[in-house]
Amino acid sequence: MRAPKLLALVSSVDLNFRYGCTPAWWQLWKGIAEAGVDLIVTPYRGRAIESPWWRTVENPAYREGELFAAGRDAVARIKGDTHLRGGEESPDESLGARAVRGVIQGYRLPRWRRPRGGVLERERDVDAVVVFTVPMSHLRGIPEAVRSRFGVPVVYYDADVPMSLPEYGGMDTGFNIYHGADPGEYDLVLSNSEGGLERLLELGARRAEHLFWGADPELFRPLDVPKEHDVIFYGYGDKFRRDWMRRMVAEPSERMPEAAFVLAGGDFKGELGRARELGWVPVNLLSRVISSCRINLNIGRRPHATVPASSTSRLFELASAGATIVSNPYAGIERWFEPGRELLVVESADEAVETYRELLADPAAAEELGRRARERVLDEHTYAQRARRLLELVGAEAGVRV
Q1: Which string of b and e fits 260-280 if b means at least 16 CB within 10 Å?
Q2: For position 402, what pLDDT does the model report?
Q3: What residues have CB less than 8 Å from 386, skipping those under 6 apart?
Q4: Could you give the CA distance from residue 23 to residue 299 in angstroms, rounded to a whole number?
Q5: What is the pLDDT of residue 211?
Q6: Is 236 helix (H, G, I), strand (E, B) or coil?
Q7: What is the pLDDT of residue 39?
Q8: Which residues of the chain register pLDDT less than 70?
Q9: Is the distance from CB of 318 to CB of 287 less than 8 angstroms?
Q10: What 3-state class would DSSP assign to 316?
Q11: What secondary structure does DSSP assign to 88-128, as a single string?
C-alpha cells in the first residue's frame, strides 16, 4: 500500500517571522510524517524550509509577499506603532484592507493557481490539500479549481478561532481572514475551537470539525534546571487580555514584593506592575524558561476564554513541560485538564495572590500539579495524536481519498 500523501499550503515555515502558529505547525507536521505520510509543504509567506519530516515546494510569490510585508511595517512605523491594529469590538474591514485584498485576488492569486496545479500534476496521487491558516479571502477560487481539475479534497484549518472570526477581526499581526471569503469552497473546515464550530457553519462552511492544539512531549519536556523566577507569563501581546494581565501579573507583583515576576514575549501595552520583561524567547529555549519558573501562567484572551473549548498552544506546551499552571477562568478548560488536580484556576487578583503564595510555600504540591498535567498530555494531547485525528478527518490515514 502506498504512503498517504498531503500537500500543505501554510502561512509560513520560517520561525524567524515569529508567527505564533509556526512552531505548532512544525510539531504537527512532524507528527504527520511519523504517522507515515509523505508531506509536501509550500509557504504563503517566506522561503520554503526543508526538514527531516517534509519536503517543500517554493513560494511562487515570495518577492511580492516580502514587499507587501515591508509596506505594512512602514505604514505602522509612520503611525508610531509596530503593527496596524484593529479594534477589539466587531472591527469592520478598512478601505485599505479591502484594497489589499483586491490586489491579492487580482494579481497574486493567479500566480498561486499555476504552481499548485503543477505540483498536483507531478505528484498525481495527493490525497488532500490542507490549508494552514493562510487568509481564506486570499484564496478565492482555488479550492474549486483544485477539486474540479484533480478530484482532490481541499481542507482549511483555522487554528485561531474565535480570534479570527469577523466579530473579533484577528490578530494585529495578520488579516481579517473571513472578509470576502467563502468557507463553503472547502470540503472541510477544521477549527482549534469546539465552541466555534457553529459559527463557522453560519459563515458557510459545509462541514466543520475540531482539531485542538497540542504539544510534542520531546520538544516541551521538564528540564532539571535551577529555579530563577517565581511567576512567569509568556505570550505575544495583551490584546483582549489586559484585564487579566492586571489581575494576575500587575496587581500581584505589587502586593508580593518578595516574589520575582517576569514576562517573556512582547507587545505588552497594559499595566505590568513590578514584572520584568525578558523579551523574545527562541522556541528551543522555551522548555528551559518554563522549567526555570516555579509558577507558569495561562492568561487566555477574552475570545478564547469565553467561547467554550477554544484551545491555544500555550496551555498544552506548559503542561507538556511539567509546569505548575495557574489560569484565568477559561470556558471548557476541563475538556483538556482537570482544575484542582492538573492545574489551578483563579477568579480574581486576591485569589491569584493567595494561590501564588500557597504554591511558593509548598514546592512539592506545585511539582505534583505539573507532573499530573504532563501525564495528561502524554495520554491525550500529543501532536502525534492530533496528527492521527487530522488524517482520519481528511480520509488519508490509509491513503484513501475522501
Answers
A1: bbbbbbbebeebbebbeeeee
A2: 37
A3: 28, 31, 211, 212, 213, 214
A4: 19
A5: 98
A6: strand
A7: 97
A8: 1, 61-77, 79-117, 170-175, 398-402
A9: no
A10: helix
A11: SSSPPPPHHHHHHHHHIIIIIHHHHHHHHHHHHHHH----E
The pLDDT score that the predictor gives to residue 398 is: 53
pLDDT, tens digit (0-9, with 9 covering 90-100), for 358-375: 999 999 999 999 999 999
Output the pTM of the full model. 0.89
Indicate the Cα dihedral angle 298, 24, 225, 357, nearest 10°: 0
Per DSSP, the three-state class of 295 is strand
Are both 5-214+383-394 and 229-380 of the same fold? yes
Q: 229-380 architecture in CATH?
A: 3-Layer(aba) Sandwich (3.40)
Number of Cβ within 10 Å of residue 370's Cβ equals 23
Which residue bears the cell 507587545? 267
Q: Rounded distance, CA 185 to CA 155, Å?
A: 9
Three-state DSSP at 14 gives coil
How far are the Cα atoms of 131, 213, 376 from residue 216, in angstroms, in the given order?
21, 10, 13
Q: What is the pLDDT of residue 65?
A: 64
Contact 128, 153 (CB under 8 A): yes
The rounded distance, in Å, linking the Cα atoms of 347 and 355 is 11
What ranges do the domains of the chain cover?
5-214+383-394, 229-380
- pLDDT for res 99: 45
For domain 5-214+383-394, the question of CATH label 3.40.190.10 is answered with no
Q: Are 18 and 280 in contact (CB under 8 A)?
A: yes
Digit-coded pLDDT (tens) for 111-165: 555 545 578 888 889 999 999 999 898 899 999 999 999 999 999 999 999 999 9
Contacts of 32 (CB under 8 A, 6+ apart): 6, 39, 53, 387, 390, 391
Q: Measure the CA angle with vertex 295, ends 294 and 301; round to 5°.
A: 155
Per-residue cell: 47: 522561503
Rg value, the chain, Cα: 21
Do 198 and 111 touch, CB atoms closer than 8 A? no
